Amino acid sequence: MSDATLRIVVIDDHEMILQSVVRLLMADAQLRVVGTAMCALDGIEVIRREKPDVVVLDFHLADMDAPEVIAIIREFDAHVKIVTFSGTDRPGAFYASMRAGSSSWVRKTRAIQELRDAIKHAAQGRPFVSEEIESQPRLEDLVLHYQPVVALDGGAIVGFEALVRWQHPERGLVYPESFLLLAEQTGYVEEIDRWVRAQAVAQLAQWQRRFPSTPRLWMSVNVSGVEVASPGLFQSIVKLLAYHGVSTSDLIVELTESVLLDDSSHTVAFMDAVCASGIGLALDDFGTGFSSVSYLRRFPFNHLKLDISFTAELPDSLRSMLMVEEIAHLVDSMKMTGIAEGIERQDQLEALRAGGWTHGQGYLFSPPVSASACDELLTVSTLLTSLV
Known about the structure:
eight-stranded mixed β-barrel
C-alpha cells in the first residue's frame, strides 16, 4: 500500500448496495476498503479496529439516524473524515448530516466517480457536495422564499422565515446546499447574508403596512458563523431596521449550534448586543448536538426551534414524544418561544399541541413560497381550516 492510498470503511444498511459500492471503490488504486458493516453500531466497532482515513456512511441506517452515528464517530475520533452517501434529495437530510460533522455529501443516484471524488476531497479537508456548482450566484440571480410560522392553537400566521434560493439560468431553482458551503469557504456568504436581510426586512415592512396585526408580523433570518465574527454586523442590522421603520422586536436572528462552537469574543458580544436591543435570538435545529441544553444556559436565547428530526417521529415514537414534552416544558419555564419545525401531517400537529408547543412551521401549513404567494396566505385568517 502506497502512502497515497486512503483507507476506507463503508457502512450501509443494504447488503446489495454495500457490496456494489465496495466493489466499485476497490477499482480505484488510491482507495483501500479496510472494513464494511451492515449497521451503524457494527460500523463503529470496525472503525475502532481499522482507524480509517474516511468513513462512507449511508444516511438511511436501520438502527439509528446518520447524524447520531456521525456524532458518535466524531467523539471517538475527531479527525476521521466522513462522507455521507444518501438516497434522498431532502435538504433537511443534507443539513442534518453536515451539521453533525459530515465532510461531504453524495447522492446515491449519481455516478460512483462522484463518491470517489468526495472521498478524496474529504481526505484533503475540502467540502464536497454532489452536483456541486463551482461558480457562485450573482446577487441579482438570488430570490427569497418565505415559510410562514403559525400559532398552533388556530393556524394564524405570526411571522416568516426568509430562505434564499438561486434562480439558475440552466438548472432552474437551486437550493442553498448547492452553493452556501462554497460561499462560506470563500467568504462570499457575508454578501449573500446582507442581501437576504435587506430583502427580508424591506418585505416585512411592506407586509406590516398592508396587513396590520396585534402582535405585529415578524421575520426571522439566518446568520452564518462567518458573518457573526464580523464586528460591524450588529450595527448594520440596527441601521437596516431603522431605515425601513421596523421595530427591533420584529426581527429574529437564527443561529445554529455550529456557529456557537466558535465561542469567541465576537460571537458573545454580538449575541449580547442583539438581546439588549430587543432583537430576537433563536437557537435553530435544537436537539441535533450534544451541547444543545448547555447553549441555552450559556447564551441569551429567547426563541428555540425544535429540529425536524423530532417532529418526523411523532406521534409513533414514545421516546420522541416524551422528549418533545420535556423540551416544551423547558421552553415555557425559561420564558422562551418554542417553534416546532417540519410539521407535515395533522397527527404531528396534534401531538405537538398536546405536548405543549405553541408555534410551528412546515408543509402542513405551507412550503417556502414567493412573497406574492405569501400575500395570498396573509388574506386568510388561518392556514388550517380544520382547527376553527
